[in-house]
Amino acid sequence: MWQRHFAAALFATLTMTGIAHADQLADIKARGTLVCGTQNASEPYAFPDAATRKIVGFDVDVCNAIAKGLGVKLEHRALSTDARIPELKTHRVDVLAAAVAWMPARAAQVDFSDQYFVAPIRVLVRADSPVQTLDQLAGKKIAASEGSSSAAVSVTRLPDSNLLTFHDISSAFLALQQGKVEGLVAGQLILARFANEAAAKGGQQYRLLTKPVFEERWGVVTNKNEPALLAAVNKILVDYDKSNGLQNSFDKWLGAKSVYKFTRDYKVEPIKVQ
């Protein structure tokens, strides 16, 4: 009897001290499958291909690279924005490559790999606007979506501008179209879509200011206290970049071979807190 009590007490102690903590990397390899979560319906990062109905995109390519690097099969799982971290913490997915930007509150819950993508927050202005730099927005009205990271960043990074927030990004863009604001602050991707769509219609044209207001840095996300898995993911990301796999994926979905024509000026490296 005492042996059972002793064993139970020892197990509880080991668990609390972390000594008996399971190694998720070993579990993944033993299972032969990596469950990688991406954000659902997030073009061009993870979205259904119209022809094949398979989920494709930049983040899906990262999931594939990690699975290949670990020598296991990939089980892809599309998740809603709110479900990403809860699904990870309850071990329904092993890792996330799901447009998750590093933030202090998130870093307290989960661990981030080296950055594999940098998502600039930029300002869109009308093509005929005299504004050429961020400094020239001082004293002028700018728009952002209410509750967005772009709105929060604008308060600190563009303190001399007059920020107006709107219920959604479409309403904020409408304010720019109507000349009610001088610039629209949002993620580079959505701003490029607005500009491209306007160009296709042949009406008012728009351009992006060159310098970003802020840069969101995305990493592959793992649960806390999984050093072996995190180290393996970091090595795979470095190798993926060295082999030009990351650049080829960027070019396909975001760069020269895409409608966005973005250029990549970041590298895979530890995330620096701004």
CATH architecture grouping of the largest domain:
3-Layer(aba) Sandwich
Output mean pLDDT. Answer: 91
Q: How far from one another are the termini? A: 57 Å
Low-confidence stretches: 1-21
Q: What's the CATH H-level homologous superfamily of the largest domain?
A: Periplasmic binding protein-like II
Q: Which topology of the largest domain does CATH recognise?
A: D-Maltodextrin-Binding Protein, domain 2
User: What's the domain count?
Assistant: 2
Question: Approximately how much beta-strand content do the residues carry?
Answer: 15-25%
Describe the oligomeric state of these chains in a short phrase: single chain
Largest sheet: 6 strands, mixed
Number of distinct helices: 10
Q: Please report the first level of CATH classification, the CATH class of the largest domain.
A: Alpha Beta
Short overview:
The chain is of the alpha/beta class and 274 residues long.
What is the topological layout?
Layout: H1 2-17, H2 24-31, E1 33-39, E2 47-48, E3 55-56, H3 58-70, E4 73-79, H4 84-89, E5 95-96, H5 104-107, E6 110-126, E7 141-145, H6 149-157, E8 162-166, H7 169-177, E9 183-187, H8 188-201, E10 206-208, E11 214-223, H9 227-242, H10 245-253
Parallel strand pairs: 1-4, 1-5, 7-8, 7-9
Antiparallel strand pairs: 2-3, 6-9, 6-10, 6-11
Helix pairs in contact: 3-9, 3-10
Write a concise keyword list for the protein shown above:
274 residues; D-Maltodextrin-Binding Protein, domain 2; six-stranded mixed sheet; three-stranded parallel sheet; 38% helix; Bact_solute-bind_prot3; signal; transport; ABC transporter substrate-binding protein; Solute-binding_3/MltF_N
